[in-house]
Amino acid sequence: MDVAILGATGLVGQMFVRLLENHPWFKIERLVASERSKGKKYKDIAEWPSGDIGEMEVEGLGDFLKDPDVDLVFSALPSSIAGEVEEKLAEKTPVFSNASSHRYEEDVPIIVPEVNGDQLKLIEVQQEQRGWEGFIVTNPNCSTAILVLSLKVLSEFELKKVNVVTMQAISGAGFKGLSALQIFDNVIPYIGKEEWKIENESRKILGLDFEISAVTTRVPVSHGHTEAVFVELGQDTTVEELRRAFESFDPLRDLKLPSYAKPIVYKEIPQPKLHRELGKGMSVTVGKLGKINEKMFKYVILGHNLVRGAAGGSILNAELTYRKKVI
Amino acid sequence: MDVAILGATGLVGQMFVRLLENHPWFKIERLVASERSKGKKYKDIAEWPSGDIGEMEVEGLGDFLKDPDVDLVFSALPSSIAGEVEEKLAEKTPVFSNASSHRYEEDVPIIVPEVNGDQLKLIEVQQEQRGWEGFIVTNPNCSTAILVLSLKVLSEFELKKVNVVTMQAISGAGFKGLSALQIFDNVIPYIGKEEWKIENESRKILGLDFEISAVTTRVPVSHGHTEAVFVELGQDTTVEELRRAFESFDPLRDLKLPSYAKPIVYKEIPQPKLHRELGKGMSVTVGKLGKINEKMFKYVILGHNLVRGAAGGSILNAELTYRKKVI
Amino acid sequence: MDVAILGATGLVGQMFVRLLENHPWFKIERLVASERSKGKKYKDIAEWPSGDIGEMEVEGLGDFLKDPDVDLVFSALPSSIAGEVEEKLAEKTPVFSNASSHRYEEDVPIIVPEVNGDQLKLIEVQQEQRGWEGFIVTNPNCSTAILVLSLKVLSEFELKKVNVVTMQAISGAGFKGLSALQIFDNVIPYIGKEEWKIENESRKILGLDFEISAVTTRVPVSHGHTEAVFVELGQDTTVEELRRAFESFDPLRDLKLPSYAKPIVYKEIPQPKLHRELGKGMSVTVGKLGKINEKMFKYVILGHNLVRGAAGGSILNAELTYRKKVI
Amino acid sequence: MDVAILGATGLVGQMFVRLLENHPWFKIERLVASERSKGKKYKDIAEWPSGDIGEMEVEGLGDFLKDPDVDLVFSALPSSIAGEVEEKLAEKTPVFSNASSHRYEEDVPIIVPEVNGDQLKLIEVQQEQRGWEGFIVTNPNCSTAILVLSLKVLSEFELKKVNVVTMQAISGAGFKGLSALQIFDNVIPYIGKEEWKIENESRKILGLDFEISAVTTRVPVSHGHTEAVFVELGQDTTVEELRRAFESFDPLRDLKLPSYAKPIVYKEIPQPKLHRELGKGMSVTVGKLGKINEKMFKYVILGHNLVRGAAGGSILNAELTYRKKVI
């Protein structure tokens, strides 16, 4: 299938390119970016080196929209322009979007395959209601994508309340998002709208109405979001039982998706520097699991914000959709 | 009053020196360290430059103990040796200790002047029970010293449950505590015994039996511990009322202690790089105060781990003790 | 004397404010910045906290130029606009500028007081030629300001050839100059025009025509430029003699200038973290002095790029000018 | 061929393991470390995760020496013990050593295959003189290994004088070599004996007696040494000609060595973060080439200190030796 990547020169866009470079199902046919990059070779504007794709010429978004003839679109557009562009494309073409623009619409699913792959059925509703041949499927915000994998496991024990503190990497803010003097030797406990996104996206993805509250911070780490979680369950359980549940969680194992990796790996002391690349960035790491009382537990989880938390998650969504023959 | 600083060459010891260099009440008479440093000039082993004190000669601990003739001892000894040494000294001399060795003994107070200065009355009990002329007063672990200032304010609203995640600075582990390759580009969610200390010291200092659970992490920040806190109160209140309570908290104002600073400063987005030096490191900064529901709130607090969290806290304890004429 | 600071909200502008806050001769009367900052309180746009000055209102540059009634102007304007603005102001008012716009004009001196204070005599030439009542005096580029202090000393031994490699701090690029992902875990051996500036400004300031070549790099350090220097002299000498020459260099000692500090301090291993604040940022540190052969030596020098290398240097220029009764 | 890795748990030792894990000629049979690690699984003591090798048990050095039955030894031992151990092993076995212990002995070659592969002929001399069946071949110090690749190219233009400033990565000091507080926000212009090593090893490897002087510094970069070089040549040339010479340098191209990569890559602005992994860490990057005058040039070079500068260089030495049928 021929695919286009929108916003191909941003950090998430570049990660889409890296992950799709040798993909067995999807072939990068078009690299689309802002007018500023139009006509340039990809290797001359991408920070990360790459192979053959580096020789491809980047198109302006305007030109692409005049003739968007591909089988599939991956969108890493900024939210400010993703809304309109993606809707237009979805009239004819499947769009897998990392933007937040459509996430909160009722007929647009936010998918994490291991958690709520069944909500791909919303595609049909969406096509009917909107009269589209294509559709929009979103993946969640990066912190949520990581967190909900663990919450899905915990939901077997009746999820009642979640308090989460994130320690998010610099790359989550984009290439120029944070100046060195701002974040160097610092922790910044403010990321715009992030708390709201974590709280609301988690509930939508899990389809459950539990209490959840987040404090989000930026730390001087290049890649990999770490999250410390306190959770209250409805059922008594033990650290051992929870650990087993985390380790045995593997709903996609038999689907043979190209981007598949074991979703959760357990390590005593999860650390971004050591574990963010596990499963090529698609595995999250859980650890420091502790019991507070019969029904309250704490743990730490981390994952690669640009892979599992963005481009990789979106590609896994497309793979699942393809496998289920929706496309 | 003539004072000795034990463990004068470590990070906390050096902070004691800096803070006492021009102190109006306490005069550094003796600098005591391990045998390795014995006989050297202070300026040749201290990382931080300093003035006249740099010319003083460092004594070995063994020599000091043979003739510990000072009015007051500040101890920045490692816990492994502080236990025995401090007990011996306390037979004759007041000891203000940053070590954890005696913190959990019933007749030894852990003091944060703004929170539980009244517990200095334990000194009398301690002297009677142990037959000492001197005594031991401790200050809490660095994360606790910062946190309890806010919990004291919240206790006016009936403290029921606290979940706290710390993001602690490198200097909390001592000068050689963390190698650059370990913590560079990393978050390490493990600090030995720290969670236990925070939970138990907080309850002892406040004299309250509330639920408290901590996850402690190390982040690549030089100085300043940041803590994200979720708290459940027994009484309904509002963000505005809590903020006012934080800002008006100032129990020591009228005591004219030399190290006094307003204990809590409110900033929208507290950050170690911008705020750790407020009040010369003695003020903690609270911010990001938010309401989760009627009785649940969240906020961020930070403070200088070597000043308010260690040497500065210990000196304030000595000042309060002196002001109250216990010494 | 009433002074205005132009470009008061940038990093150099803020350093001017800090250094002038309690200055005995100069009083900050006007804070001038771009239209964007106009009308705001200084404390609401400056990254660094400050005292009373924080309450002052910032003026737009346009408004200021309509009525620039002060005794002295310090300019931290970007070069792109400094040229024209400073010329206009200099018709009536002394301007001490950190911008590069006028540095290379024949009748504008680049002053480092300890090196070429006598070139203040160019002011008279400038006023005559241009028909101005005021004048423009510049300070050099930050790396040069640090380097030439040592080259002045070496010129006593006949300076023949200099090879210098700079390792420059992030703050030299301004608050937003470098994104965290660019410089984090990196060395970037490119700083636009910097090599040319070092080579040409050094020769102009010293008034000597020696060979000099620079390689300039950016390193992940917040403040403090470090420079490694190879130098060929015309006379034989020894490490000991050179060290004595560095340490005894102190031409301003008797002038009682408020910003005076010993210009050169010798330390075995100069390091930005330990030594950038020496002399309140006005002293540079020389060390690692070694002999290659009879006439070739190497050494390391470092200094605070925002103080000695920018605002502090400019203020020292104004103090010297005032002391010499030019103003 | 069955190989043993001595010092397998240090940073260089771990890099040997990584690079040999799927090597077509060499099979890791024995992992040898200090007594402290004896009997542990490799994965439990190595910071870097690895595959099957992680299950191997680590031997103590004492046990290994009793029965060192392998075809080849790679030594990443600390210099303090490498001297004696390597000599004993070399009686029977080829030893490729990253330690400096034997580098300066006349009959022990320091090899960089692209530069002086022909000096492998010293092996025969060594065996004869010492009565050994095995031998010792060393690779240079990390900074030298990178630098000499460029000096070899420049020697075609008659090398007269070199001034080099290194900006070396933290990992060059070993896992615990630098504490975070030492190097964080700092440049440290001191690395024990490094200047001497660069100067003397470069001359020995090139077999030329040119003037060379180094200043060595440590910078807060995880991996990748950057070096700024000033060079005086005996022949006139141009930047273009030098660049062509760098780019066309490729003496090993036709030997089909498993670790082969193009030795020198040219990039306008070489940076450790972007280029240290080129050629899987075996390529060095040259750039910022500039002309000072007819015969003086400057450039920047960087390479991966643990790969080209240590384990990778040593493995390439073994491959070349094997290809030339010395083993």
UniProtKB/TrEMBL annotation, chains A, B, C, D:
GO terms for biological process: methionine biosynthetic process; threonine biosynthetic process. It comes from the Archaea. Keywords: NADP, Oxidoreductase. It holds the Pfam family Semialdhyde_dh. Gene3D superfamilies: Dihydrodipicolinate Reductase, domain 2, NAD(P)-binding Rossmann-like Domain. CDD domains: ASADH_C_arch_fung_like (cd18130), ScASADH_like_N (cd02315). Its EC number is 1.2.1.11. Residues 2-123 form the Semialdehyde dehydrogenase NAD-binding domain. GO terms for molecular function: aspartate-semialdehyde dehydrogenase activity; NAD binding; NADP binding; protein dimerization activity. SMART domains: Semialdhyde_dh (SM00859). PANTHER family: ASPARTATE-SEMIALDEHYDE DEHYDROGENASE (PTHR46718:SF1). Belongs to the aspartate-semialdehyde dehydrogenase family. NCBIfam families: asd_EA (TIGR00978), PRK08664.1 (NF006416). This is Aspartate-semialdehyde dehydrogenase.
